[in-house]
Amino acid sequence: MGRTREAGCVAAGVVIGAGACYCVYRLTWGRDESEKIWDGDDEEDEEEEESIDIVETGVKTGKGAKANAGMGTGARLQGEAKVKAEVGMELQSGSDIKAAAQVGAQSGGGLEAKAKALFNTLKEQASAKAGRGARLSTISGNRTLAPSLPCPGGRGGGCHPTRSSRVGSRASGKTKGRTRGKSTRTPATTWPVRRGKFNFPYKIDDILGAPDLQKVLNILERSNDPFIQEIALVTLGNNAAYSFNQNAIRELGGLPIIAKLIKTKDPIIREKAYNALNNLSVNAENQGKIKTYISQVCDDTMICRLDSAVQMAGLRLLTNMTVTNHYQHLLSYSFPDFFALLFLGNYFTKIQIMKLIINFTENPAMTRELVSCKVPSELISLFNKEWDREILLNILTLFENINDNIKNEGLASSKKEFSRSSLFFLFKESGVCVKKIKALANHNDLVVKVKVLKVLTKL
Prior knowledge:
Elements: H1 2-27, H2 29-38, H3 44-60, H4 75-106, H5 111-140, H6 163-168, H7 170-178, H8 210-222, H9 226-239, H10 243-251, H11 254-259, H12 267-280, H13 284-290, H14 294-303, H15 309-321, H16 335-344, H17 347-361, H18 367-371, H19 389-409, H20 423-429, H21 432-439, H22 446-457
């Protein structure tokens, strides 16, 4: 019975040793193997790096055990080598157990002593194997990025995680595998772009022929879109700067189409319409067509916002329409408004309104109506030397023309016809303008000084 009992103890020890070795295998090598299976969906560059680490591990531990010599051949060969190593270790442990049992038998110990000896032996083997596995994991598992290298992911923390962090938490690995397809980059901001419902067929600076001008006029007539209307008006205005297109637009019936838009409430459309008519009014035949709308243009110009672009465009059109004497009488009722605007407007408005009034002063037939209108007394401030050359030259020209017309028309003898608030009294009877003009004789600008001396010699 002694032999039978010893054989049973040896068999039990072998079974227990095999189980312990399997547990150690699952805790060390099997853990790495399952990790590789778990991370099988990682990128190809990580798999290559892992194989490199395995080769390095095989080189470092090749002298320690035969099982580690084949680790560079891949995961499957590594597993087979591990199994063979475990079998050899089991056989070796079996012999150790048998020897321990014999020692226990000789010492007279019972079954408890034998089991204790077997447990101590297995514990030492497990500790040695666990230490080796920890050393291997230190070599192959803790892979981090060099701090001096740039992060390959760019902005937003795109660096690859270290292997130790993946081994430490499988839950995080699962989450990463599930969310790998989702992009964490912030989408680019898109700004709204204004797109018209209709693509205009021409550029605004294209020089068009008669067929193309007809198309533009048709678009302008049929469209109610302010954006399209503005582009069409600018295109027609640019083409109207050429004399051959001035006739073409008139012959195509474009003047009424353009003039219809001066009634719109949109100030931008009115401005573009005034500019187009202004270029067309250079032609004498076109002026005969535009005169129909000149009174409306004048009224709108006087009541619109002061110093606005619409007002400046209207004044330029009126100035072109009054270059000749044919249509000046149509605007004689607006003389008081012109002088009021001359006082209230800014620098550019003053320049433009003085050019318009000078056109009237060059027509002797308009003198009586012009000098009889009421003007603000503050108008005298325009003769101050603080104004620049253009303002002074224009106001001196205006005074010179009116003074010449009064003499030529013989209006000096009929001074009782004019009120004290009239332009006649301000320029001729008060004597204030003459004093202001004489004070300009010492002006620093030579051109102004010459103009002043010319005016004074005519008094």
